[in-house]
From TrEMBL:
Basic and acidic residues compositional bias, start-end: 41-51
UniProt GO BP: proton transmembrane transport
A Pfam family that the UniProt record links to this protein: Na_H_Exchanger
Protein name in the entry: Cation/H+ exchanger transmembrane domain-containing protein
InterPro entries assigned: Cation/H_exchanger_TM, Na+/solute_symporter_sf
Mode of membrane association: Multi-pass membrane protein
Domain Cation/H+ exchanger transmembrane, residue spans: 93-295
Region (Disordered): 38-63
TM ranges: 78-97, 104-122, 162-184, 196-223, 235-254, 274-298, 360-381, 401-418
Main subcellular location of this protein, as a coarse class: membrane
Length: 419
């Protein structure tokens, strides 16, 4: 397990991480607010269940959003998948021009290539492709990024910088909340909430301020891997980025409650507030549980790395040869090593036949563990969205169960990495 989680990232893995980061950034969508909900806040207060059904009742064609949903969209799914793979493969060599020619980070090149290939420029990746594949590709990319970011957090190295992390995060939070929230409140006439009440506008401003504090683990990890940076500043940025996830989750949850009360006119009680904070803390509990699952995954039996075995054999060989020379006379010393009946030859033959007869190699075990690990993260991302939609539609927005998958998987990977 430690060998897996603390192995340094190879260049190939770095390239994959960077490409997946760009895919997650480019393929993300902005879901427009429900016009019915905006119109409802002034005339009809409704109840929590009605609002939940309204938010989840927008007409959607599943053939446009779910791959292989029917025979009719199978051809479209295959075409979209092929186009995406071609652009994904071509993005790497094209992105390399940016560090060489413009001295910019590699991720900048990937972002530019994604914009050019997207539906607003060359339309190589069409709007239909983005609509169908964006959520699935984002879940896969973010699960990979979450696990990688969590592995980089090692508390014994981070403990001396906890004070600096808290100061940095506190300064950033206070500054961003004051500046951005004030700007959004003052510029109310330019936005959709100009006709709403002051407390509703305040809740919206606090939501935007909370989002502005959040850093991107994908960007931080991409630049760290590209520059191969280590040291106090790198640990400071990684620690602040991971801690900001939890701080922003709490801040955004509080802002969301304010908006639910004064914008959506929902009946929110102290029980709803306690429930929301309980969901925030549940992210940590779920992260701990998933950490145990990760540890079990990497306990799947598998052979030892071949390099380590060869190294041990080479270390054994001189000592065994010296022992053999001491117990033989000078005449036997002239006999070839391969012809001599010393015990190590029998050991080599035994291990050779054992290795040849075994089909379950170390690399096969490692590949299986990695596949299960990544699949677990992907399934968790998809399930959190499904669970949130179902609970909001069934019990109302005040009782929605929404886990922050990025934070949960980072916590799980961090705990498992320490183990």
């Amino acid at each position: 397990m430690p060998q897996i989680l603390h192995t340094r990232t190879t260049p190939r893995l770095a390239v994959l991480l960077l490409i997946l980061s760009v895919v997650a950034a480019v393929s993300s969508q902005v879901v427009p607010a429900s016009p019915a909900l905006r119109a409802q806040h002034t005339s009809d207060h409704g109840d929590d269940h009605l609002v939940g059904r309204r938010l989840n009742s927008s007409p959607t064609d599943e053939d446009k959003t779910v791959p292989f949903n029917s025979w009719g969209n199978t051809v479209d799914t295959l075409q979209y998948g092929l186009a995406f793979i071609v652009v994904l493969v071509a993005a790497h060599p094209l992105g390399l021009f940016f560090p060489k020619l413009f001295k910019l980070p590699l991720i900048t090149g990937y972002l530019v290539i994604g914009i050019i290939a997207g539906p607003f420029v060359s339309n190589l990746l069409t709007e239909g492709l983005v609509t169908m594949l964006s959520s699935y590709v984002s879940a896969l990319a973010l699960s990979f990024i979450s696990f990688q970011a969590g592995q980089e957090i090692y508390l014994p190295e981070l403990r001396p910088q906890l004070k600096a992390i808290m100061i940095l995060l506190g300064t950033l939070y206070v500054t961003a909340m004051i500046i951005l929230s004030s700007a959004i409140l003052l510029a109310e006439d330019a936005f959709f909430y100009s006709d709403m009440g002051f407390y509703c506008q305040l809740g919206i401003a606090l939501m935007f301020g909370s989002i502005s504090v959040l850093g991107s683990p994908a960007t931080v990890m991409a630049i760290k891997i590209e520059l191969n940076s280590v040291g106090p500043f790198t640990s400071l940025m990684l620690g602040a980025t991971m801690t900001a996830e939890f701080v922003v989750l709490v801040s955004f949850s509080i802002s969301r409650i304010v908006c639910s009360i004064y914008c959506a006119k929902l009946d929110v009680s102290m029980l709803n507030l306690a429930y929301t904070m309980g969901i925030v803390l549940a992210n940590i509990v779920v992260g701990v549980v998933l950490a145990g699952v990760i540890i079990l995954i990497f306990k799947i039996p598998g052979g030892q790395p071949q390099l380590d075995h060869d190294h041990d054999v080479e270390n054994e060989r001189p000592s065994m040869m010296s022992h053999y020379d001491q117990r033989t006379n000078q005449k036997m010393a002239s006999v070839g090593q391969d012809m001599a009946p010393h015990p190590h030859n029998a050991y080599d033959e035994g291990t050779g036949s054992k290795k040849n007869s075994s089909c379950w190699t170390y690399n096969m075990a490692l590949s299986l563990k990695g596949l299960i690990w990544l699949t677990m993260g992907y399934a968790f991302y998809i399930s959190t969205t499904t669970l949130a939609e179902w609970t909001a539609a069934t019990y109302g927005l005040s009782w929605e169960i929404k886990f922050e998958a990025l934070l949960v998987l980072m916590i799980a990977s961090c705990i498992a990495g320490h183990y």
